[in-house]
């Protein structure tokens, strides 16, 4: 379960403004459905999302795993952002206070920091692990070379390694398949997917030639994730809507089921403005797409092979690993 909709403070009001009572209902719904991990971040509504989650989990903290993040700007001072030892440690302590807990199950660096040495960040995370404040560490929004450098640095120095990466991955944006997914398979990392519906773009309410519902964004308004090919997105949505109609489910459920079944994907981080949206999204866990349905969605959304992958598909096909095949297998037929 994702909590970016909790709070609605500042710019996050555009995402949602879930208060404590609604958050409690939604957490109850998720727990009843078998969800056991709740993801948040210190930056969501300037800490208010963590405050709300801590209140909702009071008395049942041990029923779930809690994941949060550090890296983004949390104040005006020079040390209030980034992945320095100072910000990582003070950020963790502040999150613990807001969450009302003595430990974080998965502490994730929210974004790359190219100005802080990886050794400094990883040693700070090690200190938190050794002190019992953090159980496991993960990365989010890293490029493949950055993530591999971090894993190698941890191994060289005997420090805790990232066990997961939280990335954007959906039918609308499958760029992660070039390197991040193969890396996860090769290195044994779990993938948590943020915005698997592309911010609602794949919900089925955006159709070619039709005005979006009142209060909704237009495709040209999308900045995260960006939309580079509007017609291509509409092509994907048409296939989603067709399969959804044939199966008697929502387009959102089809989109979620597609991504959930991808290699190395451990879980999708889902959040919703309403209880009804959340219930619909949760139902995707019970939907299994057929090979033909997946092939239709693959064809509508497949990214082109960029170099060196088109070359490897032609000349290295005799010696490819399981990680290589996550990208190249469809191109070898």
3D structure, described in words:
There is one protein chain. Helices cover 40% and strands 11% of the residues. With 333 residues, it is α/β, with parallel strands linked by helices. The protein folds into two domains: 10-292, TIM Barrel (Alpha-Beta Barrel); 303-333, no CATH class. Strands 1-2-3-4-5-6-7 form a seven-stranded parallel β-sheet, covered by helices on one side. The protein starts with 19 loop residues before the first helix and ends in a 5-residue tail after the last helix. The mean pLDDT is 96.
List keywords for this structure.
7 strands, alpha/beta, seven-stranded parallel β-sheet, 12 helices, single chain, 2 domains, TIM Barrel, 40% helix, globular, 333 residues
Q: Ranges with pLDDT <50 over ≥5 residues? A: none
The largest β sheet comes out as: 7 strands, parallel
Strand order of the largest sheet: 1-2-3-4-5-6-7
- Helix count, per DSSP? 12
What would the average pLDDT be, to the nearest integer? 96
Percent range of helical residues: 25-40%
Count of individual domains: 2
Shape annotation: globular
> Span between N and C termini?
38 Å
CATH superfamily annotation of the largest domain:
NADP-dependent oxidoreductase domain
State the name of the first-level CATH class of the largest domain: Alpha Beta
**How much β-strand is present in the residues?**
5-15%
What name does the CATH topology of the largest domain carry?
Answer: TIM Barrel
At CATH level 2, the architecture of the largest domain is: Alpha-Beta Barrel
Q: If you compute it from the alpha carbons, what radius of gyration comes out, rounded to the nearest whole angstrom? A: 20 Å
What is the number of strand segments? 7
